[in-house]
Design a protein that fits this description.
Blueprint lengths: L15 H13 L6 H14 L3 E4 L2 H11 L7 E5 L4 H9 L3 E5 L10 H6 L5 E4 L11 H10 L3 E5 L7 E2 L2 E2 L6 E5 L12 E5 L2 H10 L7 H6 L20 H12 L1 H19 L5 E3 L12 E5 L5 H10 L26 H7 L2 E4 L7 H12 L3
Parallel strand pairs: 2-3, 2-4, 4-5, 5-8
Antiparallel strand pairs: 1-9, 6-7, 8-9, 10-11, 11-12
Helix pairs in contact: 1-9, 2-9, 3-4, 3-7, 10-13
Amino acid sequence: MKSKYLIRLSKSSIGDAEKEAVIGVLEREYLGMGKEVQHFEEQLTDYFGRTAVCVVNGTSAIHLALQGCGIGPGDEVLVPSLTYVASFQAISATGAKPIPCDIEEKTLLLDCNDAAKRITAKTKAIMPVHYSGGVGNLDQIYQFANNNSLRVIEDAAHAFGTTYNGVKVGGFGDIACFSFDGIKNLTSGEGGCIVTDDEKVLKSIRDARLLGVEKDTEKRYSGQRSWEFDVISQGWRFHMSNVMAAIGIAQLKRFDETAIKRQKLAKLYDRLLKGSNRIKPLNRDYDTVVPHIYVVRIQGLENRQLLQAALLDQNIQTGVHYQPNHFLSFYRDNSTLPLPVTELVYQQILTLPLHPDLNESDIEFVASSLLSKV
């Protein structure tokens, strides 16, 4: 049996409102950073209950957050190896060194006990990655950071909408960084944001995203340019455009609807797969977690590529999130302590289709097809 259409692993979920918002920006002919970006930031600030600053993507959000904390050459940042390479690239872009850490087997989230083994005098921050939207025991991570005088920079790219102890991720803690790329829980086409109460970090980010030009944000929001200015630190061209922000504003208006859809589909996967002896869904509470991706572990999996090919024959796309970063040539370090859980789990994980444009019959077909093949 084969699906009549391709069941995509992920996709942008946009409608007429997003298209009309973009056309509005095009008609006003001010495509760069201006009023739409300002309005999007204001709405995100209301959403989180504290200040949000928008940038061009999630990678730049992490990069600027680290830079704003004064992290750079000679410093080290603890980060799980099981994450997209963007997390590592953002760290190394500052000149700091990412230190790969192991994960907890049940959650696939940062193992704080393992991170403790890797801390040195050079360690300046810890970066929990909210893989698939889950956050794990953030209280433990913050206590660990407090005990060791570390900054906490949450890579929350997967976790927009997730709550922890009744509070939105990003609405508490040190610094949280989000991605708004095309397939995230909330998209602005590309884009991202940093959320924090740290005014020093916020000021640094606002200037650094505009090539270090001091107070250029205020000029941009009033439709002007800074013709005479000063630059006192390294900056980057990391600002968000009005086109991106317009999409984000429209997305935010219907986010509750798309978040609930993601949660319902993930819960359905859980119910359909729970009877399998080999297929193990991740330990997630989808009443509080808004999942970006849906990942399962398949015990005894011998040939993932063959399984993926068989599912694709039935018009089902699948993925693998992610290849561990300590496998990559640029980040490989033979002196790194072993990462046994990461290396075991990586061989067994498979990502199934999940996005708001799927329906329950799609999920049922994917689950039954997978069950029949393992």
